[in-house]
Amino acid sequence: MPTQDYTSASPNYGAKFTAQNRSSSVAATVTANEQSDRDNLLHFIEDKFKSGIKGSLTMENLRAFLHILVKSVRLQRDEGSFGVLTSQSMNISTSSASRFYFGSQTYGSSYHAWSQNTTAALSPTVFPSITGSYSNMGFDIPFNLSSFSCRGTMIHDGGTGVVDIKFYYLDGDENASSSLLNPVYIGQASVDCVVTRTGYAWSMTSVVPVPLGKKVFMFVRNTGHTASIEKLKVSFVMYYNTVSESFTI
Predict the structure, then answer these.
(1) 179 — pLDDT class (breaks 50, 70, 90)
(2) What is the C-alpha separation between 151 and 187, in angstroms, rounded?
(3) Per-residue pLDDT, 2
(4) Cα distance between residue 85 and residue 196, in whole Å
(5) Taking a C-beta distance cutoff of 8 angstroms, is the pair 68, 35 a contact?
(6) Cα–Cα dist 46/68, whole Å
(7) Whole-angstrom Cα distance, residue 197 to residue 82?
(8) With the C-alpha atoms ordered 189, 194, 195, 196, is the resulting torsion angle positive or negative?
(9) How many Cβ atoms from other residues are within 10 Å of residue 133's Cβ?
(10) Measured at the alpha carbon of residue 223, what is the angle toward residues 219 and 224, in degrees to the nearest 5?
(11) 74: Cβ–Cβ under 8 A, 6 or more apart, which residues?
(12) Which residue ranges make up each domain of the chain?
């Protein structure tokens, strides 16, 4: 007899919990003494659930094990899997509507003033060409990210107009080529700075996962540039979710 497909029974399992009519948005409080580590959980199984011994499995022990197990594991609906990669603020003295700024060649992307730029017409299908000497301007990804996002505030200090922000990831610089390889478009945001010296919120969520070891580059363009020098003040936080986008709450 073939093994039953567990997905066919999943709706029935879910219905049993839905029938409880509990819709609290607050996670249940769990104290440390209600949790256990893996060694103790495994020892409990070996000690309380013995094979071939009549009466070994009791409802009390089963309930105790399930309670401690549920309280000891991380549940996505309660805890989530979000974290912050980096947070910073900087200013950009823009001099053209066609330039995408992406850091400081000397000090990298964490510097307070971005001046390095490219005039490439970046888009989901037009990728940046970045030489190895600019690899310090990328944000290093320490583990696989199912979802990568960036949220921030944009202030146009010298005028008004639309500012574009675009994100890509590339391979690290391993001296195999003069340029960083395999660019991939992550996502983009646009913010219309209608009033000068006023903060406008913007956000971007990736359209693709970002793998371990890649470098994320952020590009900022003052599309509405009209004067000789116009300053942008930018603050942002890059954050992530390590759970697949197929998981919904």
Answers:
(1) confident
(2) 12
(3) 56
(4) 30
(5) yes
(6) 16
(7) 32
(8) positive
(9) 11
(10) 145
(11) 81
(12) 30-73, 82-241
Q: How would DSSP label each residue in 18-75?
A: HTT-----SPPP--GGG---HHHHHHHHHHHS-TT-TT-S-HHHHHHHHHHHHHHS--
Task: Write down the CATH number for the domain with range 82-241.
Answer: 2.60.120
19: left (phi over 0), alpha (psi -120 to 50) or beta: alpha
Q: What is the pTM of this model?
A: 0.73
**C-alpha Rg value of the chain to the nearest Å:** 25
Distance (Å, whole) CA 175 – CA 132 = 8
204, 167 Cβ separation under 8 angstroms: yes
Helices marked H in the chain: 6-18, 38-48, 59-72, 76-79
Please choose, from the candidates 110, 177, 178, the residue with its C-alpha nearest in 3D space to the C-alpha of residue 140.
110
